[in-house]
TrEMBL record:
The protein, known as: Glycosyltransferase family 39 protein
Major location (coarse): membrane
Entry membrane topology: Multi-pass membrane protein
Entries under PANTHER family matching the protein: BLL5595 PROTEIN (PTHR33908:SF9), MANNOSYLTRANSFERASE YKCB-RELATED (PTHR33908)
Organism name: Mesorhizobium calcicola
Alphabetized UniProt keyword annotations: Cell membrane, Glycosyltransferase, Membrane, Transferase, Transmembrane, Transmembrane helix
Amino acid sequence: MPALINVGPPNDVVEGFMWGREWVLLTYKHPQLPAWLLETSHLLTGSFRWPQYFVAQLTISATFILVYLLARDLLGQRRALAAVLLMPTLYFFGWPTPQFNHDYAQMPFWAAICWLLWRVGRGGGPGWWLALGLVSGVGLYAKFSTGLLLLFGAIWLLSDARARSRLVTPWPWLGLAVFVAVAAPLAAELYRVDFLPLTYAAWRDQWVMAHRSRFYYIGVQVAGLCGFVLVLAIAGLLRRSPAPEEPVGRGTLVYLLWMGLGPAILVMVASLFTGAGEAWGAPMYNLVGVVAIALLGHRLGAVEMRKLAICAFIFIIAISGAYAGIRWTKCNLRGHMDAVCWPAQKISDEAEVVWHAAAPGRLDIVGGDGLIAPLAGLMPMTSRRSSPT
């Protein structure tokens, strides 16, 4: 739907395209894995119109698969499927995802880290430790806040007796070496630019505190969970029932609550004292469905599974349709010029015409408004792309 309706890419996507062509490790905001993915999508397709939406949904789909793999290890196949069917009912996996940025690029890495960490903590061999180190290191290139999940994971690894016993083998340390090797270039670049992303984060925090209510972040998170709670009720998972025949083990439940809810709750509490962007918590809700099924899944029968599947289908269709309808109406009837409403192709062509009427050389730099200049710099139909300022 976004590829059919949106005339131009969303703001963060345009910015990602601008940075992606430079192939830098780091900007003053973030590491640049999402920008590399956007640039790769353009190089493969030659388009700025639809590939970014495809990449966004690939990351969401990968997150679904990884959450299923973790839930299957913890709860079995049936409950794992139920947990994944709950995920489309979460706001964070629907409406905002067309704007592919660092918050959504993190999602599969957070899910993969949770799965791999559980595997290594329960006796996984050297391959699992190496994979955990690699994924953890690459996850930092999506966004530095992946480090928050790594901190929670390290605390669990040290506090869980069974997981801690694995530390006497050489494999955890080999995995740590892989992580350090992967993350080292990013750390060196962060030092080289004088830790500018931290300066940006501090400025962003101040802006949020000055322009948002102190409870704004928590309000957005709670609102984003409303559909999830509604579907739990519709499926009958909130009703009273006898004690579970197959209770979830204490260790499993502790892991899910700690890794699945811990980072989200910590950021909510922190948001009362410092700024937090409303989308920053997006990857922190990957395991909410798994937690719900772990607590309520003993009530899960054929009828409940059918209701979950129907609700998931309805949410996917309804949100996609609502996105298309609202975006089209705002752009074409109400005149609200959001980023996706601007005719990127026409702006780019006009910039080329004006430039070549005045100068014979190639247009290399486009300066101007922060919304319009990058669209002119995209030059969707030509390989002669510019860099905006």
